[in-house]
């Protein structure tokens, strides 16, 4: 684990629509500094992807293990192609269908990208985000940005600027505040370096949507913490709130004696006996549920929740990314 840097900045939080805010961010990034900024999925912690020194600051600020590679953000297929050595027809088809948007493609790395970005690996993940703030900053920089989610390593991803400040305040110079993220969970990660495209991380772009474009797409084998992993971010325990997360229905018998510290996340209204401030009803559709999930878990943590109990989600492809995140967040604590 990279040691967490000591707080040494007074972190500025700048509304992204303040005149000059995007220019200020681009200036800092050009100087090799870090800036947290919104994307459509979650907030990212950006640095100049071409600079070993700038990218090393990301690992320090997050306390991220050096073995976990970063996603590179680009503003066009042209910029993506500068970061990789091949651009197979599958990449071209997917970029046409889903870019700009929440899809990261793993391809062989070009020399432009230093080894620290890919954790020494020969492949690199690239994605072209749709969020206007990220796009605006990329346009001003005109170089690719490495950006993991702007949280401390293994913690919950941020979907609002306040979540970033909670976790990284004092460790970075600037957060651009662009409000809440529209998608709310991290991008779909697809490996295009093997014989068959392989889904490494499910996201709002589903396996079915990828198969509709490419035909065969494999799902990465079930995650364990043992043995080599194809995508280190797939290590089981990840994306965790401070509270213990449990998956399962709330037994009717337990409702009357609900312990003080238990919060529930469900898709239906609270039963009459349950204290309403500890019952969080989220939309009964994957898009709406994803948009609100992390923010709700951050709020549970702020209320001092000891246990967050999440009612099971439907066993269908469109809910797969959410089941993945919740299963990981409930592992190992
Ligand atoms: O939506 C997102 O992807 C957000 C926003 C900020 O763009 N970023 C994000 O980054 O979630 P991060 O670092 O939290 O997650 C990156 C994931 C990890 O699971 C990592 O292991 C995987 O992508 N990854 C990155 N490069 C890879 C590579 N070359 N091969 C396999 N997996 C890779
Ligand atoms: Mg992350």
Physical arrangement of strands within the biggest beta sheet: 1-8-2-3-7-4-6-5-9-10-11
Strand fraction equals 15-25%
Radius of gyration: 20 Å
Alpha plus pi helix count: 10
Helix content: 25-40%
Low-confidence spans: pLDDT under 50, at least 5 residues? 223-228
Taken in chain order, the helices and strands follow as EHEEHEHHEEHEHEEEHEEHEEHEH
How would you sum up the global shape?
Answer: globular
- Number-wise, the strands total 15
Describe the model.
The protein has 333 residues and is of the alpha/beta class. It is 29% helix and 18% strand. The protein is built from ten helices and 15 strands. The protein has helices at 21-30, 52-62, 77-83, 89-98, 132-141, 161-168, 207-214, 252-255, 286-302, 320-329; strands spanning 12-15, 35-38, 43-48, 71-73, 103-108, 123-127, 145-146, 174-177, 188-191, 198-201, 218-219, 244-247, 262-266, 279-281, 307-310. The protein has an eleven-stranded mixed β-sheet, sandwiched between helices. A four-stranded parallel β-sheet has the order 12-15-13-14, covered by helices on one side. The two termini are 18 Å apart. Bound molecules: threonylcarbamoyladenylate and magnesium ion (MG). Threonylcarbamoyladenylate is lined by residues 39, 41-42, 44, 68-71, 102, 104, 106, 118, 121, 123-125, 147-149, 186-187, 189, 200-201, 231-234.
